[in-house]
């Protein structure tokens, strides 16, 4: 009887190693697609926040600006404003501490930078899974292929039938494992590159926004594109 090609036939005819390789590749594929979908939804959400952050500077005061940014605690742009406000208030109201050796500009910069670093770590979480899957899945599939070919050749040798129709079936089935490895790795690599580009655009927008927030809390006005202080935002009231 001629061999039937297909993943199902490989599963039924393969040993525990072949099945283990198939399960590992399936788990890696599910994990990578979950990361891609979850992180892609996050990027879409954060890009909406980046767009709405532009309207913040058209608000009449800080309270209205925060209201315009919404109430989602996951909004990094809202978090930058709150962090800058709290850093400014903390620097002005506390008594002598070690941080008093820093002026208000350095203190606000430090607090905003810490917030950006925390958001960057959260934004990049999960990308290591995609990188690992993209780099290892082809080799796991290749291992399954080598193992399958070895056992196929042993079985053919024991049967004493070495005609091309007897060889092509088992060898072709073993090569399916390589194809599975590539099918798992390629989406992971493409997803990783797309997510990195999306994260970069969000971080660029957040850094620009944080720069303006820093200028607002230190000088009372936003820094315009040409580097001059803009008066479009009401100055921060003392003690705010």
UniProtKB/TrEMBL annotation:
UniProt keyword Phosphoprotein present: no
Q: What is the lineage of its organism?
A: Bacteria, Pseudomonadati, Pseudomonadota, Betaproteobacteria, Burkholderiales
Q: How does it sit in the membrane?
A: Multi-pass membrane protein
- Protein family (similarity comment): Belongs to the exbB/tolQ family.
| Keywords annotated in UniProt | Cell inner membrane, Cell membrane, Membrane, Protein transport, Transmembrane, Transmembrane helix, Transport
Record's subunit section: The accessory proteins ExbB and ExbD seem to form a complex with TonB.
The record's InterPro entries line, in alphabetical order, gives: ExbB/TolQ_transport (IPR050790), MotA_ExbB_proton_chnl (IPR002898)
Q: Which domain of life is it from?
A: Bacteria
Residue ranges of the MotA/TolQ/ExbB proton channel domain?
100-205
Question: What Pfam families does the annotation carry?
Answer: MotA_ExbB (PF01618)
Q: What does this protein do?
A: Involved in the TonB-dependent energy-dependent transport of various receptor-bound substrates. Protects ExbD from proteolytic degradation and functionally stabilizes TonB.
Q: What is this protein called?
A: Biopolymer transport protein ExbB
Identify the species of origin. Answer: Comamonas guangdongensis
């Amino acid at each position: 009887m001629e061999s039937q090609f297909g993943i199902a036939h490989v599963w039924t005819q393969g040993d525990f190693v072949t099945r283990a390789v198939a399960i590992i590749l399936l788990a890696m594929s599910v994990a990578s697609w979950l990361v891609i979908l979850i992180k892609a939804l996050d990027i879409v959400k954060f890009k909406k926040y980046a767009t709405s952050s532009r309207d913040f500077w058209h608000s009449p005061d800080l309270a209205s600006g925060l209201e315009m940014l919404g109430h989602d605690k996951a909004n990094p742009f809202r978090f930058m404003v709150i962090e800058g406000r709290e850093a400014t208030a903390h620097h002005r109201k506390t008594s002598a501490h070690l941080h008093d050796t820093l002026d208000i500009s350095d203190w606000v910069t430090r607090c905003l930078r810490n917030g950006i670093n925390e958001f960057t770590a959260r934004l990049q979480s999960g990308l290591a899974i995609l990188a690992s899957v993209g780099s290892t899945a082809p080799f796991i599939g290749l291992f399954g292929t080598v193992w399958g070919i070895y056992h196929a050749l042993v079985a053919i040798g024991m049967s004493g039938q070495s005609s091309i129709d007897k060889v092509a079936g088992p060898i072709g089935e073993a090569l399916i494992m390589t194809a599975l490895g590539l099918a798992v790795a390629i989406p992971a690599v493409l997803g990783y590159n797309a997510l990195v580009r999306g994260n970069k655009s969000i971080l660029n927008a957040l850094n620009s926004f944080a720069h303006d927030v820093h200028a607002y809390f230190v000088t009372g006005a936003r820094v315009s594109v040409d580097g001059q202080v803009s008066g479009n935002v009401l100055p921060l009231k003392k003690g705010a």
